[in-house]
Amino acid sequence: MKNAKKLIGICINKNIRINIAESCTGGLICSKIVSEPNASKVLNEGIITYSNNSKVKFLDVPNTVIAKHGAVSQQTAYYMAKGLSKYKNTHFSLALTGIAGPSGGSLRKPVGLVYFSFRIKNKEITVHKKIFKGNRNQIRQKAANYAIKKSIEILESCV
Q1: CA–CA distance, 89 with 110 (Å, rounded to integer)
Q2: CB 123: neighbour CB atoms within 10 A?
Q3: For helices 136-157 and 2-14, what crossing angle results, to 10°?
Q4: Tally of structural domains, the chain
Q5: 127-142: per-residue pLDDT in tens?
Q6: Alpha helix (H) ranges present in the chain?
């Protein structure tokens, strides 16, 4: 939880509001953030876009992207962060999509594969690919912790 507290502190100091779209973590990132005091000062939106339909409906991920690349892909993660950016009063967007398991993986897309996308307002979207080991809940925890830790790194480096 200390990283969630640190993220909140950075956002408060830099006057940053964040939006988060979660798929495989199912709200775990938002839960970690709202477990800390002052979360309401930085968390603007938290959306669980678990289904393909929700990614299209709430984040404007093109159906063609999901059909061609899959829900768990660099392209889908990119469009998830882009879709979050449309919401007002957002300075930082974080989105992720992945396969927590225990099934649903393949040789090309194994269980534990997660794509994270980050966008600081008016800057390029960056996408990171990680593969985590463990059971379903361990993968979800590791993905949520990575998302918060990487957000801290990105926001510490911005002005």
Answers
A1: 36
A2: 11
A3: 30
A4: 1
A5: 999 999 999 999 999 9
A6: 2-14, 28-34, 52-59, 63-69, 74-84, 136-157
Indicate which CATH number applies to the domain containing 109.
3.90.950.20
Q: What is the distance between the alpha carbons of residues 115 and 120, in angstroms, rounded to a whole number?
A: 17
- pTM summary value: 0.96
* Distance in angstroms (rounded) separating the CA atoms of residues 115 and 60: 17
- The mean pLDDT value for 58-79 works out to 98
Residue range(s) defining the domain that contains residue 21: 2-157
Q: How far apart are CA 25 and CA 12, in angstroms?
A: 24
Strands 43-48 and 18-22: parallel
DSSP 3-state helix, strand, coil percentages of the chain (rounded to 5)? 45, 20, 35
